[in-house]
Each structure stands twice: as C-alpha cells, then as structure tokens.
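Hi R.,

Here's the chain you asked about this morning:
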Amino acid sequence: MKRILLVTILVVSITSLFLVSCKKETGEYVFAADCTWPPLEYVDENGAIVGFEIDLIAAIGEKSGYSMVAKNVPWDGIFAGLYNGSYDGVASGVTVTEERKETMDFTTPILEVTQSIIVNKGNSAIKDEKSLVGKKVGVQIGTTGNFAVEKIDGAVVRAYDDIGLAIEDLLNKNVDAAVADSLIAAEFVLANPNYAQRLEIVGSLGGDIEEIAIAVKKGNSTLLKILNDTLAALEADGTMGALKKKWDIL
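And the predicted structure, written out as tokens:
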C-alpha cells in the first residue's frame, strides 16, 4: 500500500475537499463500516455491502430525511479516519468504552453483546475462560475481544486483520480457540452452514455486557442529535425490532 509521499498528500487533500464540498451541497453523511463482521456488516456474493448496521444507517436516513451512506473501511485506522474527517461516523459494531468516549461521541446503544468462546466441536479441553490459560486464542486485532483475551494471564493471543481469518486458523487447528462478539460468533457458528457442523460456542468471557453504538466525531452534536432522535423513532415504530429479526439478532 506504499505510495510516493507527495502523490499521497495530494490525493488525500483532493479527496477531503471533495467530501467536504459534497456534504455542503447534498447534506450527505458518510459512515465507515469494516464489512467483515456478519451479520452487522459484510460483503455479499454480489459484492454489495449488507448487514444489520448497513440497513440501520439506511433506515435512519429514510426516517430523518438526510442522505446517509455506508462506506467499507478496514478496521485498522477506522477511528483515525473519523478523527481526521474522512467520514462522519463509524457504524461497525463499535463497543462503547470510557477510553473511546475521550476521543469520540456515541449514540444511544443499538445492541448489547458479550464475548463468546468458539472451539472446534469435540474439543473438551476448553469450556470456559479459565480453560484458555496456556492456549492459543485467535481474535481480530484492535477489538474488544482482543483486549479481553489480553487480560487473561497465560493466554497466547493471535491477532488477525479480520475475525474470519481467526476462524479459518481455528478450523485448521493453528489456534485452540477464537473469541469474538456474541453476534459475530453466532453468525459463524449457528447461522453459517459452512461452520455449523464443525464449530461450537462453549461459553463467554466474564465481564459486563457491552453496549454497541454508532460513533461520531467528538463534538458533532448536530449529527448526534439527528441519530439519537431517529433511533428513538425507529424503536418506537418497530423498525429496529424488524431489522433485528431480519438479521437473526436476539
């Protein structure tokens, strides 16, 4: 991905000016999503980005009257892009944490999740968090699951660019377990015919239930109010419930 520095600076500058110009003229809000996290956001067989949060952004746009679009952005650097104004928000299974609150603002929660432990079927050696001591555990780098496993004294963390790679290494027995958000774990284990007969969820990591919300740039009170008001309306009219049902989110 290396480029000549001058060319990169010019491209970034032109792109930033274009985004600002478009936003002023059209009122469009752009939300970054790392589309490797079904059922929240992923790329389907036709190359389209789909998922719960993709539909939610569209529903917010339709309900609020503002143009809102999702953009596929790799997780590594996604918050830096929010900070520098490359997009207006991040809708990508973002967990609300006190540390993140210092650099970005969050909407009211849209989901609640735990961290699930995934193993190959028949692996009786791992059944809970304590069983991960001395084991190689696959996670997606920079995620809540990554941070949670790092806190387990004796667990060997294997970090990947996306959780799908960790799952593949689990199937190939290069790691002993994988840890992911319960929503993502359910998609890989319960809803995916390629994995349902080979993997199972054996428990979850201790700790509080995590809240998932949409992140916006710190201080963007205008967008935050639009999102919160519209989320409340979507909850009240049943749209939120319908979207959760569509994407098998309990």
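Confidence is low (pLDDT under 50) at residues 1-25.

Let me know if you need anything else.
M.
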